[in-house]
């Protein structure tokens, strides 16, 4: 079976200001990021909308990319935010893609292996390729498990930064639960409150109120999360961002994940406990329908950068 990445190896990648062939986008085995995890990245969707190819909330993603770099003190970036935004568009055009998953990454390259990385040059690369549904399109909803691995605490590594090193924590969680036959993991924060999935934010519906963990629960402040909150408010739902105890998952009326790759994925079982009647709930369905309406039409236009 050919992977999504293997299928596009003849395409172009933007690397340090130039478009190069996919196979030529290489880094040295002694690159600092490979040894110490010094990388920050974004995942961004470009959709083939009725208004043309639109990159979803591109400016917000690039702002978060630079914020992540600032948190991890990756200071010597040779490109401005506007240049990176334009480069994302350029790589879409160069590969003649109508829809794609876009992956910009800032990382410490070759130059030295001191832990502080002061002799390692910061590099920036952007790739784009077609990528379908993350975790598939589940009509029955996901069967998830609360992992025994705890989400990173803010005073150990910064969860608000979308850093490659942070995702080792997520990998441990998802490897644990998938080995037991589950679709995805939910992680708790250091205080035992609900944090997020391995690569998704989580929402809970109870008595027609939509809850999601606040940024104090060691979450990534997701772009799709913000979009869903806006959609929910436009639909006149009451929303709350606060600490959520684990047991609230079990008595929820509805649960769903959100994320760039995941988009919106309903959850129907947690720890083998059925959520409500085990079906995708009406609030989730309304929000999901509205979200997909946005990415089909390219509206509101403020959410899209058209290529």
Q: Count of DSSP E strands?
A: 17
Structural class: alpha+beta
CATH superfamily of the largest domain: D-amino Acid Aminotransferase, subunit A, domain 2
Query: Poorly predicted ranges (pLDDT <50, ≥5 residues)?
Result: none
| % residues in beta strands | 25-35%
Radius of gyration, in Å, reads: 19 Å
The CATH level-2 architecture of the largest domain is identified as: Alpha-Beta Barrel
| Tally of contiguous helical segments | 7
Q: Could you tell me how far the N terminus lies from the C terminus, measured between alpha carbons in angstroms?
A: 31 Å
Overall tally of structural domains = 2
Could you estimate the helical fraction of the residues in percent?
Answer: 25-40%
Q: What's the short version?
A:
With 307 residues, the chain is α+β, with helices and mostly antiparallel strands. The protein has helices at residues 32-36, 58-71, 81-94, 167-179, 223-234, 246-250, 282-297; strands spanning 12-15, 18-21, 39-41, 44-49, 52-56, 100-108, 122-129, 142-146, 184-188, 194-197, 201-206, 209-212, 238-241, 254-259, 263-270, 273-274, 304-306. Helix 2 (58-71) packs across helix 3.
């Amino acid at each position: 079976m050919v992977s999504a990445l293997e299928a596009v190896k003849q395409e172009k990648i933007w690397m340090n200001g130039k478009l190069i062939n996919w196979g030529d986008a290489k880094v040295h085995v002694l690159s600092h990021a490979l040894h110490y995890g010094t990388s920050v990245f974004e995942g961004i969707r470009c959709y083939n909308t009725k208004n043309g190819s639109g990159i979803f909330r591109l400016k917000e993603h690039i702002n978060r990319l630079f914020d992540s770099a600032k948190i991890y003190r990756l200071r010597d970036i040779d490109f401005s935010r506007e240049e990176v935004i334009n480069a994302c568009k350029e790589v879409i055009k160069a590969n003649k893609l109508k829809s794609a998953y876009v992956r910009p990454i800032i990382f410490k390259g070759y130059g030295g292996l001191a832990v502080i990385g002061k002799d390692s040059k910061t590099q920036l690369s952007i790739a784009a390729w077609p990528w379908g549904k993350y975790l598939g399109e589940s009509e029955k909803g996901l069967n998830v498990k609360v992992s025994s691995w705890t989400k990173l605490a803010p005073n150990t590594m910064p969860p608000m930064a979308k850093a490659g090193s942070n995702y080792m924590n997520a990998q441990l969680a998802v490897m644990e639960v998938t080995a037991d036959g589950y679709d995805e993991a939910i992680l708790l924060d250091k205080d035992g409150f609900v944090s997020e999935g391995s690569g998704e934010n989580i929402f809970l519906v109870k008595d027609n109120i939509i809850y999601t963990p606040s940024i104090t629960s060691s979450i990534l402040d997701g772009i799709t999360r913000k979009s869903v909150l806006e959609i929910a408010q436009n639909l006149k739902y009451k929303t709350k961002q606060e600490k959520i105890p684990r047991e609230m998952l079990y008595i929820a009326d509805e649960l769903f994940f959100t994320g760039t790759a995941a988009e919106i994925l309903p959850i129907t079982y947690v720890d083998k406990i059925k959520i409500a009647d085990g079906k995708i709930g009406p609030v989730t369905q309304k929000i999901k329908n509205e979200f997909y309406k946005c990415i089909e039409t390219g509206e509101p236009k403020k959410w899209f950068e058209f290529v």
